[in-house]
Amino acid sequence: MRILLTGSAGFIGSAIGEQLEAAGDEVVRVDLMLESAHGASTPPAGTHQLDVRDAGSSEWAGLLAGVGAVCHQAALVGAGVRVGDLPAYAGHNDLGTAALLAAMHVAGVDRMVLASSMVVYGEGRYVCPEHGPQVPGARSVAALDDGDFDNHCPLCDAALDWVLVDEDALLDPRSSYAASKLAQEHYTSSWVRQADAAAIALRYHNVYGPGMPRDTPYSGVAAMFRSSLERGGPPQVFEDGAQMRDFVHVSDVARANVLALRSAVEAPRGHFAAYNVCSGRPVAILDVARQVAAGSERQIEPQVTGGYRLGDVRHIVASPALATRELGFTAEVAPEEGLREFATAPLRA
Fold it and tell me: Is the entire prediction scored with pTM above 0.85?
């Protein structure tokens, strides 16, 4: 099958392209080569350096001709905590996706896999031991300054316990980036109805692995921990290190995209679904830092700073059950193995 892959030169896009070609697919590679993601790098061979916001152009029309499906990975990422970031996220992610979907309709391409993110959930799911499920509001600056990082029950003020998030959870984006990812999902689901098409959104959790860029907004916390170790210092862990996340290897994420593309092509018209792409093995951030340190063979204990970022949430861990049941996806790389290997894996400059 001929597949157009946006963001093809990126960390995740590169891995997807390799797996698609290994499976015999023809991959049309497109990447804007944003400096924030790629620095001054030149596009890899065979990459069309185009802006997805200009997807209505004749050059894009030529690339979309004969395409069976689009795998849309291109996006501006990062925390997006500054108000000034809003136009950039809305432009690259929201407008870019809308322009691509419109161009696909003109070209007669009606199958899409979209890279979404766990950030659309905001906080994860919580339960009070006494009062059951609760939906916490944003943590207050005063509480964070006092070192109280937990979410609390509004009825008894007890610290809430985390539970796995499944795909029908409340969607509550809490940063510019998160809002843009949810908007991408909404544009895509609307396109499915209006264009009589089919699409799948994959909500990535914390992706890591070989080829990850170092020291950029695209790096991720595991790469930042590794960079600290390589400089001879301890990894800096925010809050108290007990915040729970799910870390999923890039090879598993790529495989999830291949499975989703096959599913989208076979799906009936009008079909839209979202799936968590995760390992299903929750891990505390402090333990992530310790695993990376152990893999580096540096006897450096991570430093728990007590610092925080307002855009961060306390816990967000996912259920992989729906993706396993409907896509046939189960992560193969366990975090405790992958994070240690990541400590010495090749990274991008």
Answer: yes
Which residues, at least 6 apart from 244, have a Cβ–Cβ distance to it below 8 Å? Answer: 124, 162, 282, 283, 284, 285, 315, 316, 317
Helix (H) or strand (E) holding 112: strand 111-117
Nearest to 78 by CA among 6, 201, 178: 178
Whose tokens are 């799906």? That residue is: 267
Query: How many whole angstroms separate alpha carbon 217 and alpha carbon 238?
Result: 17
SS3 string of 149-205? CCCECCCCCCECEEECECCCCCCCCCCHHHHHHHHHHHHHHHHHHHHCCEEEEEEEC
In this structure, what is the dihedral angle of CA atoms 156, 159, 163, 167, given to the nearest 10 degrees?
70
Q: Give the C-alpha separation, 11 to 136, whole Å.
A: 33
What's the pLDDT tens digit per position in 257-314? Answer: 999 999 999 999 999 999 999 999 999 999 999 999 999 987 799 999 999 988 789 9
In terms of DSSP bridges, do strands 69-72 and 2-6 run parallel, antiparallel, or are they unpaired?
A: parallel
How far is 85 from 114, CA to CA, in rounded Å?
22
Contacts of residue 1, Cβ cutoff 8 Å, sequence gap at least 6: 25, 26, 68, 69, 261, 265
**pLDDT of 307-336, one tens digit each?**
998 878 999 999 999 999 999 999 999 999
Which percentage of the chain shows pLDDT scores above 70? 98
- Give the three-class secondary structure for 318: strand
d(Cα 36, Cα 75) in Å, to the nearest integer?
Answer: 11
pLDDT at residue 38 in the model: 80
Q: Which amino acid is at 204?
A: Y
Question: How much is the pLDDT for 218?
Answer: 57
User: Which SS3 state, helix, strand or coil, does residue 70 take?
Assistant: strand
